[in-house]
UniProtKB/TrEMBL annotation:
Protein name as catalogued: PDZ domain-containing protein
Disordered: annotated span: 1-35
Pfam families listed in its UniProt record: PDZ_2 (PF13180), Trypsin_2 (PF13365)
The PDZ domain, residue ranges: 315-375
SMART domains: PDZ (SM00228)
Transmembrane segments: 68-91
Native source organism of the sequence: Pilimelia columellifera subsp. columellifera
Superkingdom in the source lineage: Bacteria
Keywords, in A-Z order: Hydrolase, Membrane, Protease, Transmembrane, Transmembrane helix
């Protein structure tokens, strides 16, 4: 059972769900410098046909005619030699391309192409390097203001001290201070120490995304900087819970995508087809085994950018962020839905007329199967949002409008 809105740390467990994980490793386990190579010998050309032997009884040409033929042959040879020298000199002076040369082609692409989009976004993406206790981990982030603010995942900075190193796409490097972090939303803000020539990203509207929209994931997977992968939005508002015993529990109502995301992509931007940031790449799902050995399996999850903007603005302004709460203790119901086990008076749920024992089956039309579904969908919304709730009380089906609020912390 998990408290929503009482300030306690959530602890909902989802049985049967594979462990979700993230980690940022600096090594690329797939690079193989020992792959076999072979040198291919050129094919042999066929031998030329032999000329027949001269006939000793064939009549001879007169001596004068033979001399004339020899003179003409000599002049031709001389002319050919002079021409060859002139051609060689012209080639050396650049009059024509040398054998094997490649004429450079400008990497220009039309506006609106994928290459043009990538070229516009990459200068705003950074690689974040965290050095702690002799170990180095790598994550990603993106510039959101000209004075040096950078958004990333909180879990990228888990082992960080007061500062981290930030590397830009053009090779520049700077230290950055940690402005603040919010472990529950998995978001954090850095401030670059040398904010010279920074290019902030353009923001999109994650509430306007549709399943099937094209997206691009930017970052440094497996410490491979300036990497871009592409895919589509696979699902929206995917409820996820991460963390277990002794770990930070986090809830996401995530954008699901099939763009390849691996360790090191954490904190990088998810960008729409117009080059606008719509999410923060945060979670991949594993089929099991050690976290450090898992990789992309065609499923990745990003925090919606509307939620990220709201949380990071609070962090920049106050150093912390508030949770959005429903005002009830919740647990799964055997018949499906989310049972309200306690509804404190004065909270959002109580004000809307909900009581302990009610079973909430949908929020804004999205069906709820487990407690994590309700918690994740509430956390994605801003305090003050009004949500439509379908619930059952006894055998009656009812509707209520709940105005969500911020927690008191």
């Amino acid at each position: 059972m998990t408290q929503v809105g009482d300030g306690s740390r959530p602890a909902v467990e989802r049985s049967g769900v594979p462990e979700l994980w993230w980690s940022d490793a600096p090594n690329d386990p797939w690079r193989d410098p020992w792959s076999p190579a072979a040198v291919l010998a050129p094919a042999l050309a066929s031998a030329p046909a032999l000329e027949p032997a001269p006939d000793p009884d064939r009549p001879r040409r007169p001596l004068a005619a033979g001399a004339m033929v020899a003179l003409v042959a000599a002049v031709a040879a001389l002319a050919g030699g002079v021409g060859g020298v002139i051609g060689f000199a012209a080639a050396r002076e650049g009059a024509g391309p040398q054998l094997g040369e490649v004429t450079p082609v400008a990497a220009e692409r039309p506006p609106g192409s994928s290459a043009a989009l990538v070229r516009a976004v990459l200068p705003s993406v950074v690689t974040i390097q965290v050095d702690e206790a002799g170990a180095t981990s790598v994550g990603s982030g993106f510039v959101v203001s000209g004075d040096g603010h950078v958004i990333t995942n909180e879990h990228v900075l888990t082992d960080a001290g007061r500062e981290v190193a930030v590397m830009f796409a053009d090779g520049r490097r700077s230290s950055a201070a940690i402005v603040g972090r919010d472990p529950e939303s998995d978001l954090a803000v850095l401030k670059v120490r040398q904010p010279v020539g920074l290019r902030p990203v353009r923001f999109g509207d994650s509430d306007r995304l549709a399943v099937g929209d094209p997206v691009f994931a930017f970052g440094s997977p497996l410490a491979l900087r300036n990497t871009v992968t592409s895919g589509i939005v696979s699902a929206l508002d995917r409820p996820l819970q991460t963390g277990g015993s002794g770990e930070q529990v986090r809830y996401y109502a995530a954008i699901q995508t099939d763009a390849a995301v691996n360790q090191g992509n954490s904190g990088g931007p998810l960008v729409d087809g117009a080059g606008r940031v719509v999410g923060v790449n945060s979670v991949i799902q594993s089929l099991g085994g050690r976290r450090e050995e898992a990789g992309n399996i065609g499923l990745a999850f990003a925090i919606p950018v509307n939620q990220a903007q709201r949380v990071t603005k609070e962090i920049i302004a106050t150093g912390r962020a508030h949770r959005t709460v429903f005002g009830a203790s919740v647990g799964a119901d055997e018949s499906g839905g989310v049972r309200l086990s306690a509804v404190p008076s004065g909270g959002p749920a109580a004000v809307a007329g909900l009581r302990a024992g009610d079973v909430v089956s949908a929020l804004d039309g999205q069906v709820l199967a487990e407690a994590v579904d309700l918690i994740a969908l509430v956390r994605r919304r801003a305090p003050g949002s009004v949500v439509s709730v379908a619930y059952q009380r006894g055998g009656d089906r009812r509707m209520a409008s709940v105005t969500l609020t911020a927690d008191a912390k």
